[in-house]
Amino acid sequence: MNDGDSHSTEIGRRMKEERYCIASNGLIVNIKVISLTVALVSVLSLETEMLTQFGDGDVLLRQIIVGSTGAFVYLTVLILRHIWLIKAQKRLKHDLIQI
Predict the structure, then answer these.
(1) Which of these, 70, 73, 77, 71, lies nearest to 51 by C-alpha position?
(2) Domain extents in the chain
């Protein structure tokens, strides 16, 4: 193996380690989850405002569209919350075992 191959292998290894550190860092993951939640709520708010401003006045259609989007946002946030809680419980158990 020449020197260039070993250098690229070393860079690849460091990149994998860096990705693992970022993924294992709970703070960064939590910030991403919060950002996703804020973005989903913003989409719902924007959709509601746009339907109010530019809709053709069909109230039933507006209720169906906003209701289905709201249900999707709610379920997504609920699933993310459960995943977040399960991971936190596992991390706490792991930390308590190490003590």
Answers:
(1) 70
(2) 26-98
